[in-house]
Each structure stands twice: as structure tokens, then as C-alpha cells.
Amino acid sequence: MSRPTPTLAYEDELRSAGYARIAGLDEAGRGPLAGPVAAAAVILPADTSLPWLARVNDSKLLSAKVREELVPLILAQAAVGLGMVSSATIDEAGIVQATKLAMLRALDALGALPQALLIDAVPLREAGLPYRAIVHGDSLSSSVACASIVAKVARDRIMVELDSRYPGYGFARHKGYGTPEHLAALARLGPSPVHRRTFAPVRRYAEARSSRSAPAKP
């Protein structure tokens, strides 16, 4: 069964209710074992007769090439805010709260305060704005899909930078997800400073490495 493609139906519904500035929000990087979680907020212009909008979809369904092509178009014609939360804060606050914090930072970075929010699945009462949390929102709402693309590209670029800072883990290829290559590197090298130590695989390899390096009891 084919997945739906995003439309402006949710945005049009909110505009009909009197909300002019509607921000779509989505995150990238909740599941990886390393690196930040990213979120983006995107307010599409009222005139949405944009030829590239037909190419927009859930970022996971697009190739890296298409995502990279779409980002400058989104940045040129929409209001965009980006928020990042580090792996250290993820360990301190938990991934759910860290994701919400990234979204709040993305809203703060928008410049123009939205009047209502469309969010991919995450309830965000903390924003103090009317919102609708939509399951699979990045496949249904054009503004949420744009946010998913911006967040994914921004986070992927960070993981490429981290690959050069912490070589051997393969961050540029797997972007921190728990692939066999990544798990093998964790077993060989132990966690890096940007690994999420509260995530079970990282914790397991950290504990195993610690037990191997502990001095033997007399």
C-alpha cells in the first residue's frame, strides 16, 4: 500500500479558523546512539503555489540528493527555525524532553512567532500555542514535511563533521544509528564524547569496556 503524500489540508483548515502563521515542526535523530537531536520549524508562505512543494515528503522517503536540493528552496521561501540538543542533555533530560526542547529552540529561532502549530506526533503544550499533533504528520502536512527535511539535513551535516572529529565510528555513513558497523566500532573503541550513554547499547559497551580496564581484585 502506497503512503500518502503531504498536502496543505491541515494548514488550510487552520487558516480557515483564523490562524495566519502556521508552523510545521518535526525532529530528526531521536533513535541514534550518538549525536544531537535536531528539530526544525517551518512557516510556509500564504501563497503556496511553489513548484518545488510537490517534491516535498517525509525526509526518510527522500534521497539525500533530493533533500539537499530542497533545503535551499525551503530556506529561500519560508520562515525556518532550527533547534539542536546535545547528547549530554539527552542523557540528562531523556530523549522525549530533549526532543521537546529542540522543538522549542526551533520555534525561538523562527523570528516570527507562529499562531498555531502542526507537529509530527509530539504534543508540545510547553509552547503555549494551539497545536495539533499528527501521527505521520511528515507524510500528511507539507509544512511538517518541510521541517522534517530541514532537520534531517542539518543533523546529517553535523554527523559528517563529528565523523572527522571522532574517526573510526563511521558517523558520516550511519549518522549515529545502531548499525552493525556502528556497534562493532563501539565494541572496539568504546563510546565517544558524543555518544548517548543512557541508551542501552552504548551503556552496555561502556560497562563492558570499564570492566575490562578495572584492576583485578587481590
Describe the structure.
- The longest helix has 24 residues, at 142-165.
- The mean pLDDT is 94.
- Strand 1 and strand 2 form a beta hairpin.
- This protein has 218 residues and is an alpha/beta fold.
- It is built from 9 helices and 5 strands.
- It has 2 domains: 9-165, Nucleotidyltransferase, domain 5 (2-Layer Sandwich); 177-212, no CATH class.
- Strands 3-2-1-4-5 form a 5-stranded mixed β-sheet.
Number of strands: 5
Q: Number of DSSP helices?
A: 9
Task: Outline the biggest β-sheet.
Answer: 5 strands, mixed
Backbone CA Rg: 19 Å
Low-confidence stretches: none
CATH class of the largest domain: Alpha Beta
What number of structural domains do the residues give? 2
CATH superfamily of the largest domain: Ribonuclease H-like superfamily/Ribonuclease H
Globally, the shape reads elongated
Specify the helix fraction band. 40-55%
Major sheet strand order: 3-2-1-4-5
* Mean pLDDT figure: 94
Summarize the model shown.
The protein is of the alpha/beta class. It has helices at residues 9-16, 64-77, 87-93, 95-108, 137-140, 142-165, 171-174, 180-189, 200-213; strands spanning 22-28, 37-43, 79-85, 116-120, 131-134.
